[in-house]
Amino acid sequence: MGIMPVWKDEGSKLRLQQLSKPTQPRGNIHQYMKLLQEEINQKVIIQVNPHHIKLYSPTFCIPKRDGSYRKILDARNLNTETKRIHFKMISSQDVQFAIQQNDFLTSLDIKSAFNHITVHPSLQPYLGFQVANASYVYIGMPFGLKLAPIVFSKTLQAALAAAKEGLTSTILQYADDILLINKDKQVLLVETVTVKQRLINLGWVINNVKSEMIPKQEIRYLGWIWDTKLMTARMPLNRQQKLFFRLSQMIQQTINRQFVRIKEVAKLIGKLQFLKFQFQLASFHLIKLNRIKDRAARLRGWDSTLQLKLTILPELFWWHSMILANKPLELLMKSTVTATLTTDASKTGWGAVLNMNQQEILASATWKKPLSLRSSNQREARAILYALRRFKKQLM
C-alpha cells in the first residue's frame, strides 16, 4: 500500500501544481550522481514521463557524520500542504530508566531506513525531481518528507514486535536506531543475532558498520555515551570538541562586538539545548542568548544578522566551562524512580503525560493568552507549571 498523502484541505493539490518548477540538483554533483545511481539500482526512484509529475521539488546531497553522503528531497512545498500528525518517540530519559547497573548493550542500525517504505501511487506524482533532462519520482519514501518519521517508526515498531517475540531482552527504538539491553551477555549476543536475522527475513537491511553486535557496557546511542558500569551518560568527544570550538568563536565575536547570522545563533542554541539531559541547568543559561535572538528575528527577519551583546558573555563562559569539563550525568537507578512527567508546548497549547504506578495519565489545554508567551522557553516553563498543578493530587 505505502505512504499516502494526508492533504491539508481540498485545494492542496491544485496549489502544489501551481508551484511546480523543475530545478537541477545542487551540492556535490559527483556524490549526488553516485547516490542517484544507487537509488535507481535499488528501485527507490524510477524515471517517468514529465507529464506524469504534478510537483517538482529540488534535490541535493549533504555529508553525514561518517563521511558518506545522503540525498535529500527539498519537500517544503509538499510539507506545507500536508497535515501535521503528532507522535511521541523515545527520549534519553526513556533509555535512562530502561538500563540498570552492569547491563550489557548492543545496537542495530537500519540501512537506507526511509527507503524501505513504499510510496502509494497517489503520492508519487508529487515526489518528482529533475536531473539534466530526465524526470524521476520516488517510489520509496525519501528523506525530507514531513510524514516520513512517523510512518517509518510505526512500520519498524510492527516489525520489531514480531522480531522480539519470545525474547527476554529489552528493546528500544528511535527512528532507525535499535538498542537491546540484557543482564546476561551471552543471552544478549544470541538475541541480537536473532533480532537481526528476523528483521532481514522481513525485508529490512541492517547497516553492519554502524551496528554494535558484540555486547558491551559502554555504547553510543541517541547522541550519548552510555556507561552501565559507572551508570553515567556523557556527550561524545567529537561533539564536545565541535561545541567547544564554536563557543570559543562566539565568545571572541561577542568581545569584538561582531555581527553574526541569526540562524547561526539559533543553530548553536539548539545544539546547547540538546545538552540539557546532561546539564540540568542548561535552559537557565540560554535565557539572554534566546532573548536577543528572538528579538532580532522578530524585528529584522531570520535571514538577517544581529550584534552580539556583552551581556551574554556570562552564559557563553558557563557553557564553555561545562563543555570543557564534560562531567558525566549520574543516572538514577530504576528502583528510585516513582513517577515521570513529560511535557510539551506549542504556540497554541500544552500537553503532559504522567507515568506513575504503571499508569499513563494525559492532560492538555490551549493557552488562554497565547500572545503573552513569546518564546519557546516561556511556553515550556508554563507547560511544566500547569502540568504540576493538574497532577497535584497524584503527586502529593
UniProtKB/TrEMBL annotation:
Family matches, as Pfam families: RVT_1
Name of the protein this chain belongs to: Putative Transposon Tf2-9 polyprotein
Domain of life: Eukaryota
Protein species of origin: Streblomastix strix
PROSITE patterns: RT_POL
InterPro entries assigned: DNA/RNA_pol_sf, Hepadnavirus_pol/RT, Rev_trsase/Diguanyl_cyclase, RT_dom
Residues annotated as signal peptide: none
Domain Reverse transcriptase: 43-226
Record-linked Gene3D superfamilies: 3.30.70.270, HIV Type 1 Reverse Transcriptase, subunit A, domain 1 (3.10.10.10)
